[in-house]
Amino acid sequence: MADPHRYQAIRDRFEATVAQLRTRVDANLFTTSTFRDNCRLIVPADKANQVHSLLASLKAMGFDMLVELGAADYLHYPHATDRYGVWYCLLNTQSGERIIVKTFVNDPEPRLRSVFDLWQGADWMEREAYDLFGIEFEGHPDLRRILLPDEFTSFPLRKDYPLRGKGERHNFQPILRAES
Fold first, then answer.
1. Class of domain 4-179
2. On the CB side of 46, how many CA atoms lie within 13 Å of its CA?
3. What is the pTM assigned to this prediction?
4. Whole-angstrom distance, CA of residue 33 vs CA of residue 22
5. Residue 157 CA to its chain's centroid (Å)
6. What are the residue ranges of helices labelled H in 30-168?
7. Three-state DSSP state, 69
8. Which phi and psi angles does 11 have, rounded to 5°?
9. Domain ranges across the chain
10. For the chain, which has fewer Cβ within 10 Å, the N-terminal or C-terminal residue?
11. 51: helix, coil or strand?
């Protein structure tokens, strides 16, 4: 059952964090939104190059754990103005506070600065976003495919990727159980 007092306490703590963060970074860098216990900082695509400094400031404020890094393709999504969304779910392990930082990138070269230097756990998460969406993370120490074979030339979670694929599977040698 939803507890409105709990949600209000989370929002109050989030507003205090945002006020402190606005003293560290450009106050117009992001907007905020909340829904129940989800507190989000939203950075528009034209300021995506500043996301790393925002995340570094949050880490300095105690958000020491990157829980998740994910991406989505908003092609054909109603009212979407940007192609790809990338989000970083952060946790302050001392207070239990969570914040989601969301930004956007666009074609022809969807690219963000890697946060591997802030959280080494971003390694495989960034590689997964690269492998499935083609979003590049500049400065990543080993940005290569993690789920698909190196010979795979497409990005299968893009909305313009055909449902039945582009025939890539037919180029791979089958691996028999006895050989695996």
1. alpha beta
2. 2
3. 0.89
4. 15
5. 14
6. 51-60, 122-133
7. strand
8. -65, -40
9. 4-179
10. N
11. helix
